[in-house]
Design goal:
Length: 269
């Protein structure tokens, strides 16, 4: 059996083959294969990538048959940058590329390198997430973007490239659910809106966190009046629990919202 190819046994008793290559003192797994021949071929391809610097991530797709694409990225990165990273990352000077697959490449700041070196990104229908402690986390959450946020409305990509996930390229427009920035007579205000039978203005406030508390208060009012609709609730980071309670108690919301519930014929949206 070729060096770097190892026979293994599954729980059901069937056999398979695992590939492993050692480069600059680092043992790198090449994956599992059904046959000895395919595993040996993958091992040969791995050495080809490590020895031939003329083969890059784009051109490797035409010369590699057995080795998984993400393994190609790992091997080319360790060849060029002398750092082994088990996820499909290729280092650049001030940022890194994460290859979701052959056609989707994400850009990240080096500040995120430690995290994505140990967390694999999965893509399901355009929803990109990582698994951590048994939970799935949307990668946009690292920027303060909530799961219900809408691209182009609640956050934008400054250069128009939604694969560029460097911090300087992501602009969070609306941090909290139901809160929208507006310009009134040259001043910035924050409108709190709740969707009942259409969007309902809860009020306009001087800062984003206060508007988010007003939205939460409107949600509580809806629930107390018997609405069963599931409203997202904001978690406010700017205030301590005591400060939150004080603002919540003192904040005023639109009297029209109370009038809405006096109409016994209201219908839930």
């Amino acid at each position: 059996m070729k060096s770097g190819v190892y026979k293994a046994t599954k729980k059901d008793g069937s056999t398979y083959f695992r590939g492993n290559i050692t480069y600059n003192g680092k043992h790198i797994s090449l994956g599992s294969y059904d046959t000895n021949a395919s595993c040996a071929a993958a091992y040969d391809e791995a050495w080809m990538l490590l020895k031939n610097k003329d083969i890059d991530i784009l051109s490797c797709q035409s010369v590699v048959k057995y080795l998984p694409f993400e393994k190609c990225v790992t091997l080319i990165n360790v060849r060029d940058n002398h750092i082994y990273i088990k996820t499909p990352i290729y280092l650049q000077k001030n940022y890194f590329l994460y290859y979701l697959d052959k056609s989707i490449v994400l850009k990240f700041d080096n500040d995120d390198l430690f995290y994505y070196s140990s967390h694999k990104i999965q893509n399901r229908g355009g929803h990109m997430f990582v698994s951590d402690y048994g939970m799935q986390y949307n990668i946009l959450g690292r920027y303060g973007i909530k799961p219900y946020s809408v691209k182009g409305k609640d956050y934008i990509f400054a250069n128009g490239d939604d694969t560029d996930l460097r911090y300087s390229n992501i602009v969070v427009v609306n941090k909290y659910h139901g809160v929208y920035k507006e310009q009134k007579k040259g001043k910035t205000v924050y409108a709190a809106k709740i969707h009942l039978n259409g969007d309902f203005i809860v009020g306009r406030y001087q800062d984003e966190a206060t508007a988010a508390i007003a939205y939460n208060k409107a949600v509580d009012l809806c629930k107390s009046r018997g609405m069963t609709k599931s409203f997202p609730v904001n978690y406010i980071t700017e205030y301590s629990p005591r400060e939150y309670a004080n603002v919540y108690t003192e904040i005023k919301i639109s009297s029209h919202l109370y009038k809405f519930f006096r109409n016994k014929n209201f219908r839930e949206a």
